[in-house]
Amino acid sequence: MAPGGIINKEEIESRIAYLDHDTGHPATSNAELRGSPFRKAATPSTGNPGKQSTSNMQDLLDCPVCFTIMYPPIFQCPNGHTLCSHCRARVKNSCPICRGELGNIRCLALEKIAESIELPCKYQSMGCCDIFPYYSKPKHEKNCKYRPYNCPYAGAECSVTGDIPLLVKHLRNEHKVDMHDGCTFNHRYVKSDPREIDNATWMLTVFNCFGRQFCLHFETFHLGMSPVYMAFLRFMGTEDEAREFSYSLEVGGNGRKLTWQGVPRSIRDSHQKVRDSQDGLIIQRNLALFFSGGERQELKLKVSGRIWKEQ
Ligand SMILES: [Zn+2]
Ligand SMILES: [Zn+2]
Ligand SMILES: [Zn+2]
Ligand SMILES: [Zn+2]
């Protein structure tokens, strides 16, 4: 399961595919699926008879198929088994609990009851302590500052999400990213055939500084018709935290120099978004080759930089 208790899409899909596959010999995991949250909700509370707690209510609102909270329209089969609209669209009109025909029955009573309750943010386990009325919960969760971050590694599809410590470990262990301590850096980018440009040419280096992590991106792409190199910094944390820092980048050679000063972007902004906004040091390829010296046959760029904290 993904960090933060989020069931990923693959899991949901495989689960539903499994239920669709009616062999007449229900496997144990199928029986377990039929039981858990649904039965928990349907069994009368043993602790406090007469007092329906919010957590019992929350169990009732969990979809028995995907285990996420249901929002209207909530559906039910003729036998009363409830189902979220997302799962209903995928189960081909057959109730995943009783296998009966699903039909088109709304569960208005449950939708109404839901209006009256308040629920904790789904990122509670990641530190969010807020509680919200049922209907405003999704809006908060979309922007909750405790929601997991996407892996900042670009250039390859990576679906890993999590908090910052998890992602730092992930970058080091899975992507073998270079990690450096310190707030100043000197980096060399060398490419033997700089004519060969494709959007996959890029590098990522991570700096540990002020106890936080900064991602230095360096890449090649076409800006309009012109081949360019671009370097920029992303901060592993929220937008607000990112604004507490500044950075500078410097590249040059042959007696010339380009400098850039900017504010690191939060990794909440995708790598692509930062690149498209051109919020970084952009070097035209011709200039880059000039900086590289020699016969302009090889790219040898020295990028130096510094990160500091604004007062
Ligand atoms: Zn569902
Ligand atoms: Zn049913
Ligand atoms: Zn939250
Ligand atoms: Zn990754």
From TrEMBL:
The keyword Zinc-finger applies. Transmembrane segments: none annotated. Residues 63-99 form the RING-type domain. Gene3D superfamilies: Apoptosis, Tumor Necrosis Factor Receptor Associated Protein 2, Chain A, Zinc/RING finger domain, C3HC4 (zinc finger). Residues 116-176 form the SIAH-type domain. Its EC number is 2.3.2.27. This is RING-type E3 ubiquitin transferase. GO terms for cellular component: cytoplasm. Residues 43-54 have a biased composition (Polar residues). Pathway: Protein modification; protein ubiquitination. The lineage of its organism: Eukaryota, Viridiplantae, Streptophyta, Embryophyta, Tracheophyta.
